[in-house]
Amino acid sequence: MRDAITSLIGTYDVAGRYFDRNAMDDLKSYFATGTARVQAAAAINSNAAAIVKQSGSQLFDELPELIRPGGNAYTTRRYAACLRDMDYYLRYATYALVAGSMDVLDERVLQGLRETYNSLGVPIGPTIQGIQIMKNIVKGQVASAGVADTTFVDEPFDYMTRELSEEDI
Ligand SMILES: CCC1=C(C)/C(=C/C2=NC(=C\c3[nH]c(/C=C4\NC(=O)[C@H](C)[C@H]4CC)c(C)c3CCC(=O)O)/C(CCC(=O)O)=C2C)NC1=O
């Protein structure tokens, strides 16, 4: 698992090079956004349960067929599994935000996920909708915590969305 710094070191080490101007720019931007990323993580941590609950409620309001007989989140067990998945997405998004790297998502969350979902009939489109709902709720929380520019919060949620929706070749 890598973060922004270890990735950068890895790239330069492979080439046997000292950090150049580009590397310095990457390092500066990583450290310049550090405080905001930690603030975002803190805002998520202290509201995680509520964020997951609210995201689930909004998703089921928008797509009530999911929790009706025949829906993939119908029955208490599957409803709970769906919210648990949302909780995984939130927790790992937080790690990725702090790391400044999406590597943890590839390694711990996305690997084999689409295949698992397809084999269990978990619908990808609604899952993505849930991730996007959660993104917006998280951005609201982070803004309330005093972070002026919350654009960087999009990245892990949009990354998971993109990777999950990618078509097979
Ligand atoms: C940390 C990384 C990680 C992820 C991401 C993960 C996902 C994951 N979600 C699963 C199931 C599931 N996932 C859902 C989710 C949903 N159904 C819907 O209709 C909604 C659209 C959606 C919620 C937003 C449901 C309902 C199941 C249970 C499906 C079943 O057993 O029939 C399963 C199958 C095994 C199980 O039930 O635990 C896995 C592996 N597991 C992991 O270890």
Automatic annotation (TrEMBL):
Keyword ATP-binding: no
Any one Gene Ontology BP term: photosynthesis
Membrane-topology annotation of the record: Peripheral membrane protein
InterPro entries tied to this protein: Allophycocyanin_b (IPR006245), Globin-like_sf (IPR009050), Phycobilisome_asu/bsu (IPR012128), Phycobilisome_asu/bsu_sf (IPR038719)
Binding site for (2R,3E)-phycocyanobilin: N72, R77, C82
The entry's keywords: Antenna complex, Bile pigment, Chromophore, Electron transport, Membrane, Methylation, Photosynthesis, Phycobilisome, Thylakoid, Transport
Residue numbers bearing the N4-methylasparagine modification: N72
GO cellular component: phycobilisome; plasma membrane-derived thylakoid membrane
A Pfam family reported for this protein in Swiss-Prot or TrEMBL: Phycobilisome
Main location: membrane
Signal peptide boundaries: none
Keyword Metal-binding in record: no
Compartments where found: Cellular thylakoid membrane; Membrane
PANTHER family: ALLOPHYCOCYANIN BETA CHAIN, PHYCOBILISOME 32.1 KDA LINKER POLYPEPTIDE, PHYCOCYANIN-ASSOCIATED, ROD 2-RELATED
NCBIfam families: apcB
Similarity section: Belongs to the phycobiliprotein family.
Name the record gives this protein: Allophycocyanin
Organism: Aliterella atlantica CENA595
